[in-house]
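Appendix B, record 7
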Amino acid sequence: MSSFLKWFVNAIPRAPKKTGILMAVYFWWLDYFTPAGRALASLFLLSMFAGLVPGFWAAWIFGGLDILLFLALVFSLFVTAKRSKVSVENVSVNRVRECETATLSAYVAVRSTLDCVTFGVNRLPPSLTGIESEPAKIKVGESPHKMECFVQTTKRGSFMLDKVSANVQEIMGLLRWPFAYAGSVELLVYPRKFKLLSFPFLTQGASGLAFAPFLMPSLTRGMNFIGVRPYREGDSLRDLHHKAFARYGKPFTKEFEVERGAGVILLLDTAAPNFADRRHLENAIRIAAGIGDWLLEREILGRFFIDNEEIALSGGSESRKNLMDALARIPASSIVYGKRPEPWSPAARPMDPVLRVGLYANEDPFVNKHVVVGRPPSKNETSDKLLFVPVRGELPEGGDL
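Structure tokens (predicted):
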């Protein structure tokens, strides 16, 4: 019940789809006022209302504060930092997992020496929190200064950072001018790490016979020897590297070049047929990420699909990057809308065994095995093709399926 309430609260939208007048004023308040300026502006409003109270003995004090603050702001507007010439270039951000902190970096160049420049990002989605850089002094004539700020994440997703800026404070320190980056940068937040330790379900029963050959490298290996690696379950004993075993005291396996193009097909079905299943979509994505990483580690992931869209796997470390990028870009589940189940119809008929991860059991002729997340099995669904994962709360760091 607690996991359902947590999903329900997290699924409530916190930001409007279109920026109205109130949001525009709020963004202007954040962009152009420093923390000290916001505090004094709030005091300015408090002084106005306090001065209107009849018979209040200290009304003249609040009236004086109003005048002084107004004069300070007017002075800051005339001695404006907008006259400075600041450029922000080469903005980049690293990819992170849920609840990790991303580092946003850029190169800031100036045409006149500035004593206080900060770097940050504003107008972030509700699940992100921006942390500005420490103030820096940048001298004219020197090479562009590298600056970094941070973004704290809480949810998986793809986020466009449109308001990246170098902020130059006014002389009074109450206002500032944000010199914005001309473009935008995409922040990809990967699913929370789920390390799959073993996967016996893949080769269980008659439906597992199609997957078994891919876990026996001796049947699909090439002729070119490329090195050794630690022994993994399923390796042939005749491929043990005896010299490495004698030297390090643990088994190593000879590794041969593998012919590309063949391997297990992993399918992630994001359809959520009913309201109760939508809260498990994030766990299904995390399990798909763990299975995909497990298959890539053994070099037996041939193709990867999200619904009917195939994600290109270029081989090596790029395959893991492409897989995780695609998982990060999956839209989050919604309370009022869920994708309806559809027959899986890839552009080309799959020739290799297919493993499907989804929120419901599906009798698809192309799919050999199903991993169903978040729903207990019914009496007539006991089969070697179906694995039900009743997830409650967060997935552990490592586990077996």
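Remarks on this record: Helices lie at 2-11, 21-32, 35-51, 59-78, 217-220, 242-248, 281-297, 317-328. The mean pLDDT is 79.
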